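Record type: monomer structure entry
Structure origin: computed from sequence
Chain ID: A
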Amino acid sequence: MKSRQRAESDHDATYEGGATRVRLQRFLADAGVASRRHAEEMVLDGRITMNDRVVDSLPAFVNPATDRVFADGQRVRPQRLTYMLLHKPKNVVATSRDPEGRRRAVDLLPPMKERLFPVGRLDAESTGALLMTNDGELTQQLTHPSYAIPKVYRAEVDGFVEASDIEQLRKGVYLAEGKARVSEVSIVHAARDRSVLEITLREGPNRQVRRMLARLNHRVRKLKRIMIGPISIKGLPAGACRHLSLKEIEELRVAIEAAKTTAAPRPRKRKRWVARDATPRDARARDGDRPRRAGADRSPQPGGVRPPSRPVGKPQSRPGSEPSQRKRRIIT
């Protein structure tokens, strides 16, 4: 509950005047000074001053409209939050830095003072909707698995897609990371040598659509993301971008809250039973002394007769069976 209240208080900041206050580390991150974590370190190191006073403890709040903030002696001015939708063309990488020197998504944006970052990933061979923003809070919500924002893709594949393939995509396909499934899938066009599918994902591994269809022997010719939540690229040509309207931003935030409410709980880790005095698994692997379970040593006795797996007759009390030596439940 506290984390949600904190997020809501951070979200109220618009940097357009008024008496709204935001956390100092968020203000520094949005202004491009440093990441939030690094900004916290700068505050604790006494490198930030606000209204001629050194700020060296957290939490600290700033009013971007009235307070004067300096980082290492340089004035920090508020950066207005900007939201843009880019129709990413093929052979453009959705990263801020590329060691190979390929064309980046940020290179397609018009000149502006704000420094925008791509939200999420979209491989170089794929095209379609890509959000660009300097709102770190919104970026975290759109990319975190607990929110599960739906993303709609249109895939053109080789061959005729049968009903059994659609059912298999819904049930799930095993990849290296485990079982992956789609949220929704429908056939837009089906022919002997080419089919077009519309697939909705909420979360999953990298290149999930291509890898799942490859498992079903359908090579992806073209892959285009046409929607991110309620935001569509309809009417936006490849390589072009536009600002999101206030209505679209609000609809996107509503979709985020709705997705978080309806998201399925993440699976819990399995439980196992171990003895109270059992050596931890890591220590056993390190020491090379893996204890054997009772009855594991069943080597033949003289005469070629193996010992029985369980004692015959009335069970007798064994040493160490007192309550203090019994097994206890440990969650791993």
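Annotation 1: Confidence is low (pLDDT under 50) at residues 1-19, 282-291.
Annotation 2: The chain has three domains: 2-76, 81-148+236-264, 150-228.
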